[in-house]
Specification:
about 200 residues; about 40% helix; alpha+beta
Length: about 200
Amino acid sequence: EYALHNDPSLILSETPQSYIIGNVASYDGRQYPAAVAGKRPEGQSFAHTLVIPKARVYNVVDPAATADNCALLREMHAHFTAFWSAPSGEGREKMLARAKRGVDDQDKKLLAAGTTNPAYEAVRADVFSYFETTASAFKKLDLRDFVCGFHVFPDNSIGHLHMHVFPHADRFRVHSTREYDWKTVPLEAVLDVEGLGR
């Protein structure tokens, strides 16, 4: 049902079981000068992306998420693996394009507000130069450079299973929120609890 209710440009990839979707929000917290602690809207890292199942599954603690030796979670991870590892580099380019659109859209919102925000104006040029310098390093990452994790009930904010995927190195997180790190449970930990390992 995701495709019926959301902007199709957010869908970066699709299999019969899952979607990879881009984050609507910018990853750069400097674009949210009025945001307050506890309610940070920016992503957890540069090009923060989500993998969601097409089936209605509430959260990673839902038995449907871990049924059949975590088949659904494994499919979600395999989907991202194939997407990122495609020889054409198409997955990387799609993630970068979505990240740039998040920055551009938030920039337009700030400029359309009709009043100059001195805090944003002071860093606006660097927001865009940071994207350009970070994008080239981002394209060189491999799978072990990403966190794949879940916000586990009752600490989830959305009532539909989704796997957060983002680069974990500090250089990709310098302007992103770490506010939700404490509740991001890695896929490996979920599989370990299920006694499966990756």
